[in-house]
Specification:
373 residues; alpha+beta; five-stranded antiparallel beta sheet; globular
């Protein structure tokens, strides 16, 4: 099989790859038993390793020898022709190195997730489909599987990009349950806690020099605007190549507003475009059967604009979005209590809209309203 051959039938996936998929899949009923890593493992890895550095892999044409990882320093100088620049335009703001690879013109490859594949397949027939990346199926490269999807940056000239993680929590209920049933002290999470706040560990945790995953996950959420506003800023990449991911303590509405103001360079036209797009997304979410029947955890809104004032927002990252049991639905506004699976997505979206509206007095004329009040 050629490195970039599209796999149209999962029956063609055999051997180690099929075993890997069967071991890592998440069932369509909402169980996440096969999910080994929490969102915090993924993002914490990024927090300590990607400060100011963006990495992505260039995927050449079929048969071309694989290129090494391009390392783009804080200020990027592009020695590529225009078509290559577009092919290398995808920026991974959060997540493990290797999760994304550049593909042919207009598309990118994302590391395979059975759960995310199921979400893309269900979204094809849902009203939300126009707000998510176009899905082009499964691709195999060098013995690994990837999901091929549209590159959301390809039509922008020097894009500015922001990743906002939505919802009042970024971990699944099942993760808490499993961690309590089989508690495991984690020194790596303890060290990540110390990096942020050396006073955070309790005396017992300091003695053990380790914390459990539930303790770390809930502590981490309490620091950011996930806890106060129902969303948090994960990362920003500006047109000049600078990348910022240190928003772990950006918690108050005032702090978040200032970050957005810097991101849009106080441009009222861009702010207005973002608000219109978000209101369109919100109305569509209310009508979406997919949204009603899924616990949306760890998903992001990707904000993109450039110097021409072109601006757009997309729903991305469905690796931890899981279907609810038959007959259960969510309103995505109610407070979370363990067992109800509420994620606070719409509550966060309302707060996000109010934050943007506060940036420019012109935005108040747009009549921003909320669904969770």
């Amino acid at each position: 099989m050629e490195p970039t051959e599209l796999i149209t039938d999962m029956d063609e996936v055999n051997g180690p790859l099929r075993r890997k998929l069967s071991n890592s899949s998440i069932s369509s009923t909402g169980s996440s038993v096969g999910l080994e890593e929490s969102e915090d493992d993924i993002l914490s890895d990024n927090e300590t390793k990607s400060k100011g550095i963006i990495t992505l892999e260039h995927l050449g044409d079929a048969g071309e020898q694989a290129k090494p990882w391009w390392k783009l320093k804080t200020v990027v100088h592009w020695p590529f022709v225009a078509s290559q620049r577009k092919r290398l335009s995808w920026v991974q703001l959060a997540g493990h190195k290797g999760s994304f690879k550049a593909a042919e013109e207009g598309t990118i490859l994302k590391k395979y997730s059975e759960n995310e594949k199921l979400c893309f397949e269900r979204l094809r027939d849902d009203v939300l489909q126009r707000f998510v990346p176009a899905y082009h199926g499964i691709v195999e490269r060098d013995g690994e599987l990837f999901l091929q999807m549209s590159d959301l940056l390809v039509n922008f000239d020097g894009p500015n990009v922001m990743d906002c993680k939505m919802g009042m929590r970024t971990y699944l209920e099942d993760e808490l349950v499993r961690a309590r049933e089989k508690p495991k002290l984690r020194r790596d999470l303890y060290n990540k806690m110390l990096e942020v706040d050396r006073e955070a560990p309790t005396p017992e945790e300091q003695k053990q020099q380790a914390v459990t995953k539930p303790r770390y996950m809930q502590w981490r959420e309490s620091l950011s605007s996930t806890n106060t506003l129902g969303f948090r800023i994960e990362g920003i990449k500006k047109a000049d190549g600078t990348c910022h991911t240190d928003f772990k303590k950006t918690r108050s509405r005032e702090d978040v507003t200032q970050v957005f103001m810097d991101f849009v360079s106080r441009n009222g036209n861009i702010i207005s475009s973002y608000i219109r797009r978000l209101e369109d997304i919100r109305q569509t979410l209310k009508a979406s059967e997919f949204f009603m029947k899924h616990e949306v955890i760890g998903s992001s809104l990707l904000f993109i604009h450039d110097h021409t004032e072109r601006a757009d927002v997309w729903l991305i990252d469905f690796g931890k979005t899981t279907a609810l049991p038959e007959g259960q639905i969510l309103d995505h506004c109610s407070p979370w209590e363990e067992g109800n699976r509420e994620d606070g997505y719409l509550w966060g979206l309302d707060n996000l809209l109010h934050t943007l509206a506060s940036l420019n007095t012109e935005c108040t004329q747009l009549g921003v309203h909320t669904e969770c009040s």
